[in-house]
Amino acid sequence: MSASTPSATHVRKSLSRADLLRLHGQAGAAGLKESAEFLGYFFSGEAPKPAPAIVEFHASAEVKISASVAVGPVPTESRQSALSGKERYFAITERETLKALPEPEGEVLREDRRRKKPLPHALPLVRSSRLLPFLKRELSFPWAGREPDLGCVLEALTRGKALRRLPFRERLGFAGRICVLLDIQPATWPYRPDFNRLWQHLSRLRGKAGVDVRLLAGPPDTHPRWSRPDGGPDRRWQMPPPGVPLLILSDLGCNRSDPIAQHGWTCFGRALLAAGVRATVLCPAPAERYEPVLQTLFDVVPWDESVGRLRASQRGEARVLPSRKAAVANLLALASPCIQVEPALLRALRHLLPATEADAGIEADVWLHPDVEGDILWYWLSNPEAIARYQAEFGRLYRERPDWVRKAVLLIGAYHACLPDSMRLSELQRCEQLAPGVLNEKARQEVDKWCANMALTLRESGPSLPALKSWAGRELARNTPATLPDNPLAAPLFACIHAEALMRGERVELPDGLNVSALHVSLNRAGPVYSGSLVQVGNELRLMGGALSALVSKPFLGALVGAGEMLALAVTSEGKNERNVISVSAGLPATLCRLDRHTESVEIVSALERVRIEGIRKPDWAVSMRQDAEGLSAMLSDGTKAYWREMEGDLPAGWDIGGWRNPGNIGRDQYGLYAEFGVAGVTQRCRWIPAGIFLMGSRIGEVDSNINESPQHKVKLSGYWLADTACTQALWRAVMSDNPSSFKRNSNHPVDQVCWYDCREFFTRLNVLVRGLAAGIPYEAQWEHACRAGTTTAYSFGQTFDHKLANIGGQTIPVASLPPNPWGLYEMHGNVWEWCADWFGPYEAEPQPDPEGPPQGFDRVLRGGFLLFLDAQYVRSASRFGLDPGLSYRSSGLRVAPGQAGQIQVLMELKNESSEWFRSRISLSNYKARRRAAKAVAEASHDPDLNVQSWSLRRSILEKNKKKPKK
Question: Interior CA angle at 695 toward 840 and 906, to 5°?
Fold first, then answer.
């Protein structure tokens, strides 16, 4: 063996061949090759492989760091390598310990039980009380009755004719022979039960010899082919004998607007008329679809209960339903939880809709829909996309029309009562998932018990039973990303289908929404707990363990604790998310995935914890990157090193230094995590405010509360940084080279008399001087959250005001003169108003995550209290004030919030402002010139407390002063 690179020679000084022999003795020959490659060696008979890349660890402003990251393998002082800023590296950015889920309880099912329960009667297209009189009238033949015809007798006697026989009155009745033609094709499959019931009923009335039933065996034509319903060879059409009525049960090709079928029926109708046969057609299609030529050849009767009188439809009689598409979509949505939908169930669901929206033709529209596949017995949704879409519509209907959905679920349970439990209860479970609370308590308990038993059955016997495995595949395909997270059977179904493939070492794609923790319970059979090391070897992410973990003192990326044999991986690359499940049953090391320049993040979920790895780059503030005995370090321009370290709690998500810990400016005290930055010898300490939930605004009945502080509402905030004091005059002068304050007794006093736009320019310059700070103004919710510091009283120090803890004395005092609040923040009550980033506007009552205030407005928010009013009500935690961003008072200041610069688009705001401040910035681009102009305007207005920065107000005041007569 030989070293692959010159740097590997340095590794060999600390890892000798004796170490490789010891590794061979512990890991065996199988793991020697990969272990040697990881440690910088390669076999001499092979081409050298690139040495493992040294990972750079840095979080940008969008990445939240909360996990330990260490480096390896075995760094030494003599092995140092500077990294280029163009290289792409990875680091652990999140780590979460998962709660162990309980083992499934229940009993293994031995059979798929069926219930013996009578099904409800199928609803007919038209009631028998209406249909039979119509058939007698249409299929009638004059018969001699039993009542003498006295009129004929008198006529004969008056004419002197002898009566050879007594005449009887004629009556209409069914013809002695009736010919019925059935058209069974895809457009009439929903009506096949109605066709069968009709001809069977006629057979019972007239006998089998009196009803000639013919089944159309192909497309209609002048002489179509037909056969008997009970089978037999096809034969050529022969016209019925004279006097035999012909009844056709067909849609005449109108339901699917088939021109070929309609042409065939036209030819057939002309042939019937030529033979003297006038046929009656019972057509389950709406009248607006009839072709006029067919209405002249046949007596077309709409076969629908919503039609008034059953009679032949005349030309022009059409009832147009404008909402037909909506009715079809509603029917498909109501039936979407079903595995299969029979004609009887579809008919019952159609009757839930108003008759003005759904006629008989809607059923054919559903059966012929492009999202549907079906046969002569039932239909089903064709693809997962259609299932997901219509199941989402099912949930929408439950919110808008709960009466429809509740009745639909009852119909599904009634018409599928005799199906196996694997179908019936699966459908009811899906109904409950899509519409929580739609099942009654008894049905819900039955579904829950079956789910628990089926989960255990799939876990214990699923992979070994082909029939159960096949059912699991079909059942999992019917679930959507919306139903997978809450489906207790999703993970057992997936495990049953793919357990054998995973044991063979194959990668299996993981569906979106599947609960990974539940999948570990189904796949990992009480596996042992292990601790591996996540390392980057070349462009591969590997999980190392065993003897190699013992040799590597610091894991390359971090440790992973797991149990069992399965790992779930989610790799995001170029915006595409690929989720897989892999098996580590073959032992460690195991290759998890590739890490290249296109990889954005990798999420690894074991049975015990979740680890997230993200791609990062060298920070802008670092001159170079080095790896030495202390770990991975970033070199600053002044020679200071910042090391990547694990820190307790959440690290900043907004500060550009991220997880880089410089012992000189980051630390922890009794108040928590803090960091410091400096400008020209002026140091400002900032506090890390952890994420949390609090009630924003004043509570009902709070003394001295204001209407603009209500309603009190719940706010959820992410973690952020905030300066522990207001910005001092010293810091302002160091950045702006000027001091606009009214109270200039001490440079440690807070800066005052600054407007909102002055603050924006201050932060623009500050962020240039302090690379990576990205400071800005805090949002109003962040300010109140920090001011309250976990309290709910009017002040952070209690319910009543205390002059020793807040300043309203008429002038400012030095910062940090009063005791801090519980989070280490000084003078949050009193001293100066502090600008916030939000527009001033009313509160909303709904809970809000990370609110940013109204999208537009006229005034910006001020917080903290006006010391000039000498009134304690203005320094409460909930007190708020609004002011034009171009105006400033003698007590308006600010507080630095690192990491907030990217949250406000300053230039876009300035361009979109209704005021003319943007033009004033153009005309007075220099800060000092603008300050001198503002001072002149203040003197001209004879109001020393007002510092006007608005161009329109400045112009109006100047014009007003010009009109005043000089004294």
Answer: 30
